[in-house]
Amino acid sequence: MSNRARLSVDPQGPWRLYQRTPLPGWEVLGTVQRDLEMGALARSRTGQLAQLNSGVVRSLDQRKAEAALAAALAAVAASSEIGPKPV
Q1: Which of left, alpha, beta for 36 (phi over 0: left; psi -120 to 50: alpha)?
Q2: Does pLDDT of 20 surpass 60?
Q3: Contact (CB, 8 A) for 65 and 73
Q4: Where are the domains of the chain?
Q5: Taking every pair of C-alpha atoms in the chain, what is the biggest distance, in angstroms?
Q6: Rounded Cα distance, 35 and 59, in Å
Q7: Cα–Cα distance between 67 and 70 in angstroms, integer?
Q8: Residue 79 — very low, low, confident or very high, per pLDDT cuts 50/70/90?
Q9: How far apart are the C-alpha atoms of 9 and 71, rounded to whole Å?
Q10: Residue 81 pLDDT more than 60?
Q11: Exposed, middle or buried, 49 (CB in 10 Å: 0-12/13-18/19+)?
Q12: CA angle, 71 as apex, 66 and 75 as ends, to 5°?
């Protein structure tokens, strides 16, 4: 996998398809896609973002992962603000 792979993050993605239970010491944040590879996006106790697939931990480019996560969280927040307002 080259470092040029684009990352896409979905904070509401079905991460349990890729990692049935969170690994000890990891917080699962959603799903991540690198080219054609998909997996659960998780953050370790030390703050490192990684892709999890059935217990296998794959490191991610931290700058790309943080930027993709921030953009995805902003998009989710914006879409929830646009939705219908309760009366």
Answers
A1: alpha
A2: yes
A3: no
A4: 7-76
A5: 50
A6: 15
A7: 5
A8: confident
A9: 8
A10: yes
A11: buried
A12: 150
Q: How many CB atoms lie within 10 A of CB 2?
A: 6
Whole-angstrom distance, CA of residue 1 vs CA of residue 35: 9
Give the model confidence (pLDDT) of 23-68 as tens digits. Answer: 999 999 999 999 999 999 999 999 999 999 999 999 999 999 999 9
Token pair listed for 5: 């792979």
The amino acid sitting at 87 is V
Tokens of 57: 């931990």
Sign of the alpha-carbon torsion through 4, 44, 71, 37: positive
Task: Extract the runs of DSSP E, i.e. beta strands, from 1-87.
Answer: 7-10, 26-34, 37-44, 49-53, 56-59
- Phi/psi at 16 (5° precision): -70, -15
For tokens 């953050």, the residue is 43
